[in-house]
Amino acid sequence: AQKITQTQPGMFVQEKEAVTLDCTYDTSDQSYGLFWYKQPSSGEMIFLIYQGSYDEQNATEGRYSLNFQKARKSANLVISASQLGDSAMYFCAMRESFNFGNEKLTFGTGTRLTIIP
Amino acid sequence: NAGVMQNPRHLVRRRGQEARLRCSPMKGHSHVYWYRQLPEEGLKFMVYLQKENIIDESGMPKERFSAEFPKEGPSILRIQQVVRGDSAAYFCASSPPPQGITGELFFGEGSRLTVL
C-alpha cells in the first residue's frame, strides 16, 4: 500500500494565485512527521515545511502553510501568492515513529507545479 | 559552502563497470542517508549510516550495492557491475546528532548516474 499519495501529477496555476497541493498518508504510528520538499529543474531538494503529528497548529513558513487534517490523514501544502519561481516538482514525505535519530523518509511521487505568467 | 557535497554531479558508465558516488555531510553532521530517484519518481530510501556503522540498509538492493561511511572521509555509495536500470539520481542527505523533534534532512544536489 502507498504510504504517501500525491494524486496530482501536474498542476498549472496563474501567477499570484494560491495553490493547494494534495498529500494523503497512511500510517498506524501515533508519532510521525510530515514534510514538503521542492525540487526545481536544477535537481536539488529544498526543505519547505514540517508538521509533527502532535502539533495542534498548522505549520506555516512564509508563503507556505500546511493544512494538516489528522483524522483524514491529509497534509496538503498551500502556497499563497504564487510566483514564477515556484515552478518545480513538490514532494510530500513522511517519517514514521520518532525513532530518535533515524530520519528515514518515505516520499510520494510528486506534483509538477507550473506557474503561468 | 557548508552544505552537503556530492560528487561527481554526473557520471556515465558502461554496463558492467563500477560506479562510486561520494558524499561529504554538512559540518557537524554524523548521520548520512542515501536515496535513489528514478526518472519521474519520488525519492526512495536506500541506506542510513553513522560513522563506521550501517544503521538501516532496508532499502538497499541485495546485490551489487554497498555503502560505507568511514571514520575519516566521505560516505561512499558503490554500485558494482552497473546495469541500465541503475540509471538514476542518487541523493545524499545528512542530519546532526539527535537534538530535537523536527529532524530536518539536508540534501545534497545529487549525483546523476547514466549507464550506457
Descriptive overview:
The complex is a heterodimer of chains A (117) and B (116). Chain A contains no helices and 12 strands. The mean pLDDT of chain A is 91. Chain A is globular. The termini of chain A are far apart. Chain A is mainly β and 117 residues long. Helix content of chain A is 0%, strand content 50%. Chain B has strands at residues 5-7, 10-13, 19-24, 31-37, 43-50, 53-56, 65-68, 75-79, 88-95, 106-107, 111-115. Chain B contains no helices and 11 strands. Chain B has 116 residues and is an all-beta fold. In chain B, a hairpin with a 5-residue loop joins strand 4 (31-37) and strand 5. The mean pLDDT of chain B is 91. The chains are: A mainly beta (117), B mainly beta (116).
Observed structural traits:
heterodimer; A: 117 residues; mainly beta; six-stranded mixed beta sheet; four-stranded antiparallel beta sheet; 0% helix; 50% strand; B: 116 residues; seven-stranded mixed beta sheet; 11 strands; 48% strand; globular
State the helical fraction of chain A. under 10%
Helix fraction of chain B by DSSP (H/I, runs of at least 4): under 10%
Count every helix of chain B, treating DSSP H or I runs of 4 or more residues as helices: 0
Mean pLDDT of chain A: 91
Average pLDDT of chain B: 91
Q: Please tell me what the overall shape of chain B is.
A: globular
Oligomer: heterodimer
- SSE sequence of chain B, one letter per element: EEEEEEEEEEE
Strand % of chain A is over 45%
Quick overview of this protein structure:
The complex is a heterodimer of chains A (about 120) and B (about 120). Chain A is mainly beta and about 120 residues long.
